[in-house]
Amino acid sequence: MAVAVTALLALCGAHPASAAAHPGPARRAAALPSAVSVLSDLWNRPWTVTFLPDGQRALVTERHSAGVWTVARDGSRTKVGEVPDTVFAPTGGDFGEGGGLLGVAPSPTWNGTTDQDVYFVHTAADETRVVRMRFDGTSLTDYQVVLGGIARGGDHNGGKIAFGPDGFLYVSTGDARNKALAQDPNSLNGKILRLTASGGAAPGNPFGTRVYSLGHRNPEGFAWDARGRLWETEIGDATWDEVNLISPGANYGWPTCEGTCTTAGMTNPVHVWHPAEGGVPAQAAIADDVLYVSTLRGERLWALPIDATGTGLGTAVSYYTGAYGRLRALAKVPDADELWLGTSDRGTDKDSLLKVTLG
Ligand SMILES: [Ca+2]
Fold first, then answer.
1. Which residues are found with C-beta within 5 Å of the ion, ligand 1?
2. Residue 21: inside a domain, yes or no?
3. How many other C-beta atoms are found inside a 10 Å radius of the C-beta of residue 252?
4. What is the spatial distance between Cα 338 and Cα 352, in angstroms, rounded to a whole number?
């Protein structure tokens, strides 16, 4: 009977929500973007959107101002503080890339009272830091460096930070425009790091250090899928941008390889773009086994379905090409068929947070 119902639904081209109402072994059909609207405006280069564990408010960072806001589900926002010692140093490039305040990760058990820990990545004058502050739900205080000594560049500073399903803290770092660092196992740069809450090497790391994976150029995004696998977005050099499926201890090639190569010991990307053909990927979010990727130069949102093997990606579909300019911050809204997506580099008070409805 289940087979017959499934076949009938398929013949009818049933809406995914209808299919989801019927129990069965098949996973829910992906609910793809169906509408987009402005959730909040008057932003200046928001770098990241990350929801607090209660799912009711997100923390949003601005890279230049070092300001941090909460944004409620209705789009209302409140400034809660700034991250001290943040130094933005524009490189003179077209978009003034230059570090600043980057990612934010609340403790997975943050509740504003007994657990107030919120982590940030930012560039200081001479280094990139992972820091911890206390957030009581209203204001940020008590700045503490938990990991300094990460080389900073004018750009290539990585900056994504999140607690994984295993409870440890993952941080992406760029090569800081010193390519050799990405292959140096003793450098914190050009890596995905896996840390304890106090900034040490997490137990079980592949080399007994803070390094989880290496050979990255400028990874600005990552997200875990429903199987617990870690997908990463990485800005390459002039030829290939990448999506990688991250395995502990694997070497993702840079600078020996850009994109796919045949060098022994290097792990190839799962998906690549040319920078001029929809590329320069910023951040990642996953909903219903679809990997969403925001792109800067590409000025579009990509949807890449995770295939039945769980380790490959199907045909990429793009949305909103050129409609909103460069796109960076990206988050799945908890318990909702919704993404929040930030524009970037549109000028003073001209950036927006967009609400993307799925399904
Ligand atoms: Ca690579």
1. 252-253
2. no
3. 26
4. 16
58 C-alpha vs ligand 1 centroid, how far in Å? 31
- Regarding beta strands 101-106 and 117-123, do their DSSP bridges make them parallel or antiparallel, or are they unpaired? antiparallel
Q: How far is the CA of 215 from the centre of ligand 1 (A)?
A: 7
The shares of helix, strand and coil residues in the chain, as percent rounded to the nearest 5, are 5, 45, 50
| Distance from Cα 79 to the centre of ligand 1, integer Å | 37
Is residue 179 domain-resident?
yes
Residue range of the domain that includes 53: 35-279
User: 317 CA distance to ligand 1 centroid (A)?
Assistant: 22
Domain count, the chain: 1
User: What's the one-letter identity of residue 223?
Assistant: A
Is 211 inside any structural domain?
Answer: yes
349 burial via Cβ count (<10 Å: 0-12, 13-18, 19+): exposed
User: Is the pLDDT confidence value at 97 over 90?
Assistant: no
Residue 242 lies in a domain: yes
Confidence of residue 28 (pLDDT cuts 50, 70, 90): low
Q: What percent of the chain is predicted at pLDDT more than 70?
A: 91
Taken as a whole, the chain contains a residue count of 359
Hunting for tokens 């896996």 — which residue is that? 194
Burial code (b: 16+ CB inside 10 Å, e: under 16) for 32-66 equals bbeebeebbeebbbbbbbbbbeeeebbbbbbbbbb
CATH of the domain at 162: 2.120.10.30
Task: Give the lowest-confidence range in 16-20, 42-46, 113-117, 145-149.
Answer: 16-20
Ligand 1 centroid to Cα of residue 269, in Å, is: 6
Ligand 1: distance of its center to the CA of 122 in Å? 24
CB 296 within 8 A of CB 221: no
